[in-house]
TrEMBL record, chain A:
Keyword Nucleus in annotation: yes
Protein's UniProt name: N(6)-L-threonylcarbamoyladenine synthase
Catalytic activity: L-threonylcarbamoyladenylate + adenosine(37) in tRNA = N(6)-L-threonylcarbamoyladenosine(37) in tRNA + AMP + H(+)
UniProt cofactor note: Binds 1 divalent metal cation per subunit.
InterPro entries: ATPase_NBD, Gcp-like_dom, KAE1/TsaD, Kae1_archaea_euk, Peptidase_M22_CS
Organism: Dimorphilus gyrociliatus
TrEMBL record, chain B:
Domain Protein kinase per the UniProt entry, residue ranges: 6-226
Species of origin: Dimorphilus gyrociliatus
Keywords, alphabetical: ATP-binding, Hydrolase, Kinase, Nucleotide-binding, Nucleus, Phosphoprotein, Serine/threonine-protein kinase, Transferase, tRNA processing
Protein name (database record): non-specific serine/threonine protein kinase
Subunit details: Component of the EKC/KEOPS complex composed of at least GON7, TP53RK, TPRKB, OSGEP and LAGE3; the whole complex dimerizes.
Amino acid sequence: MPIAIGFEGSANKIGVGIIRDGEVISNPRMTYITPPGLGFQPRDTAKHHRENVLSILKEALREANITPKEIDVVCFTKGPGMAAPLISVAVVARTLAQLWKKPLLGVNHCIGHIEMGRVVTKADNPTVLYVSGGNTQVIAYSENRYRIFGETIDLAVGNCLDRFARLLNLSNDPSPGYNIELLARNGKKFLELPYCVKGMDVSFSGLLSFIEERAASLLRKNEYTREDLCFSLQETIFAMLVEITERAMAHCGSKQVLVVGGVGCNIRLQQMLQIMAEERNASVCAMDERYCIDNGAMIAQAGLQMFTHGQRMDWNETFCTQRYRTDDVYVSWRD
Amino acid sequence: MSESHVQEEGFLFQGAEARVYKKTLYGKQIIIKERFSKKYRHPVLDSHLTDQRLKSEVRAILKCSSCGIKTPVIYMVDFNSSKIYMEYIAESITIRDYIENFLKDGGNINELASLGRQMGKLIGSLHANGIIHGDLTTSNILIKSKESGCDLIPIDFGLSSLGRLPEDQGVDLYVLERAMLSTHLNSEKLFEELLDEYRLSFQGGLEALNKLSEVRMRGRKRTMVG
């Protein structure tokens, strides 16, 4: 049974995961958390990753109870992501591959989420809603590519939520989106916000400017509470996401939807997707941290798929890149 | 789709937002498009969107017919039940089905250049008349053959708006490009033909195409983290 180790550090999480035949045998990770009101800067994030990657690696090997010798392939996130954190992790993966004399594969981060989601949920061919701090895409598979049917034409949904959280000075622990979600549960009064869907694409920049301009005064005049604003924001942007997902499902005749990426952990978003799916006799694959939040195992899983289908990379191909689109990858492991 | 609607007489299909029925009115075949409430949306947002889209659809279709662009004729609108009663376009299929049938019969997608040009001309005249479709796909344009050539009939104007901003025109083209390239493999050249004719047939075409390349870059350049 082939074993793969995966290194992920494209954003504020650093993780090392080990996969044996689709089964996660260890998957430790750490998150770089910044003070409220601040985002994570590339340089500091990379520093955090460099300082922690080796102890996480040791933990991964110990938990999996294997030696480097047993590993068949080393995988790392090739992109997309922030350059400095990506590089800090790629250096480690490249060094280890040489020390251990193992093949090295660079993996597309988005494909990692999707492949992990497929193996965990056993969903064969779902429509994928990929929502995270940097990505907002509706994806479906056809003829050896994950094709992007819809995406944001400006901000990513997670970025929009993060920036709103900064506006309200919410904590980044465990994540700004989670703190918005908690507040939103107690929101009651709905504020109408710009709703912008263009075909299967969405746009969030107008909505963000709208609320950035008004939030302070709405709160000061006690017209809306922080809870109400979080609630209205979630209701509006999630409705946009569910709408384009449904449109893509109708377009592709798909009966199954899988949500991946950090924003996919939001219970309200899952609930809305569930209602949409029920209304059209479709189903939602259960959410699971293994493919929603960035981690090393998902990179190992996608890398293992590539490896067992004969893909190898020349040394000079094992660089990393900030821009690496989901549909750039030739998917050799699916029919 | 729930069983009750399937059993209802004349039920054709359920799209993302509307159920479509084919019925007979005074001996004429008609289409009834009924927008239904989406339970996942907040009720305030839902009723606002349903009303707004019904209005946009009617407004754009009327505007098309006043500009000589062929669309289904609207017979009646019922705002209370969010229904539009409109003309049934007999012997027509969507461009998507047309392309798929053509490929199934062994055709090469690049032989469809004249269809691409005709689509470009249609979109050019929508934009020239201040109509932004908002959801251009090959499923949202019908094709109906006639003695010489064929007619193209745009439908599904729920996301449309009226205006002449190059930005909106560029996004309209971008949405179509994305839908075409992801639905029909190797349709890049077909889309180029479309843009070529669009630019020739519509005076503001060049400006809209410049915006299109800006919008494309937004997608490409966007930092993608997470």
